[in-house]
Design a protein that fits this description.
It is built from ten helices and no strands. It is mostly helical and 190 residues long. Bound molecules: 2'-deoxyguanosine-5'-diphosphate and fe (iii) ion (2 copies).
Length: 190
């Protein structure tokens, strides 16, 4: 799928604010890929598509997860805020014919992260948090870290997200803890 095609598809599927967020993630992901040595075109495409099903009803997201042979049903026992990530990958694979595993995995893990993320997975996870439209507390620190070290920035994001979820007494999906543990102490290796 070409980037222009992905852009016009999400234009139809997302409200304006979310559409602009997706353009921001796509562009930021492209820059991070160039900076840290990943495939720029894949990063831009994954960024463009990452939130494609964000506004599908929960019932539809649940179906996409349940009907996919390789996507864990464990997501369904956690916050419905997580569902659009694996469901989005199932949707782009089935409906838009995207076959590239790297892109599909980057979409699946863009919300939770996981242990042993690939460079592209880290880039989409991070671009989602630091694209120029974001302005929550601490985002500047993560942007700063992302100038030098991919792992340091991803670690900082995971720490902030987990801390925020704990503060709110929310559940934390296990992969998010695994991603955090995986990067403790490895922040200087890029
Ligand atoms: O879709 P976006 O709003 O662009 O960003 P996202 O996909 O990262 O966000 C989904 C929300 O899910 C985010 O506000 C944090 C929340 N969330 C709920 N449970 C978890 C979680 N995030 C992580 N990483 N892990 C969780 O267990
Ligand atoms: Fe998302
Ligand atoms: Fe997003």
């Amino acid at each position: 799928m070409k980037i222009e095609e992905a852009q016009s598809t999400i234009r139809e599927m997302l409200p304006d604010k979310r559409y602009r967020h997706s353009l921001g993630v796509s562009e930021t992901a492209g820059k991070l890929a160039a900076r840290f040595g990943a495939d720029v075109d894949k990063a831009r495409l994954a960024g463009m598509l990452h939130d494609i099903v964000k506004y599908f009803p929960d019932k539809k997201l649940k179906q996409l997860i349940e009907q996919h042979p390789n996507i864990s049903n464990e997501y369904l026992s956690y916050s419905n805020n997580l569902w659009h990530a694996p469901a989005g990958a199932a949707y782009v694979e089935q409906t838009l014919g995207v076959k590239d595993r790297d892109i599909l995995n980057a979409i699946i893990y863009h919300t939770t992260g996981k242990k042993d993320m690939t460079r592209l997975e880290k880039i989409i996870f991070l671009a989602d948090y630091i694209e120029p439209g974001r302005d929550f507390p601490g985002v500047e620190d993560v942007r700063k870290a992302a100038e030098n070290s991919l792992d340091e920035a991803v670690f900082e994001e995971l720490w902030r997200t987990i801390t925020h979820l704990l503060d709110q007494h929310q559940r934390v999906y296990p992969d998010t803890f695994f991603a955090y543990n995986d990067l403790v102490g490895s922040q200087n290796n890029q």
